Amino acid sequence: MTGPNWARQAIALAGILSLCGCAISGAALLQAGGNAVIGRFDADKDGALDGAELAALVAAAVPGEGAPLDLLRAGLLAGYMARDCDADGRVTPAELATGQACVGTGP
């Protein structure tokens, strides 16, 4: 990350990593962050993020091209989808705020 936006990108990436369970954070922060993320990337305004909306979130958080970034984006997307506890193909703010992947469920 270089250029004038590196600090914002680093903060955004830290938040994204926290929401996908890749970093430790408090439950209140996760809930607030989940609501903010849903509000920003919920294109169809159904209150949850589907696979395409999650892909847009990950692409915004990890811009650029190349195999290493593609792998990072794929891992983050998989981490988010692992939170889909009711296996409906959508991740809700409550599922984002769980802090961990669901066991034995998901798409």
Short description:
The protein has 107 residues and is mainly alpha-helical.
Describe this structure in words.
This protein is mainly alpha-helical and 107 residues long. Helix 3 crosses helix 4. The chain has 5 helices and 2 strands, in the order ααβααβα. The radius of gyration is 13 Å and the shape is globular. The chain has a two-stranded antiparallel ribbon with strand order 1-2. The model has no long low-confidence stretch (mean pLDDT 78).
Strand line-up in the sheet with most strands: 1-2
Strand content bin: under 5%
Our measurement of the CA-to-CA distance between the termini, rounded to an integer number of angstroms, reads 32 Å
Strand tally: 2
Percent in helix = 55-70%
Based on CA atoms alone, the radius of gyration comes out at 13 Å
Count of DSSP helices? 5
* Structural class assignment: mainly alpha
What number is the mean pLDDT? 78
Order of helices and strands: HHEHHEH
Q: How would you sum up the major sheet?
A: 2 strands, antiparallel
Question: Rough shape?
Answer: globular
The low-confidence runs, each spanning 5 or more residues with pLDDT under 50, are: none
Helix and strand arrangement:
Blueprint (H helix, E strand, L loop, with lengths): L5 H14 L7 H15 L7 E2 H11 L5 H15 L8 E2 L1 H4 L11
Antiparallel strand pairs: 1-2
Characteristic key phrases:
107 residues, 5 helices
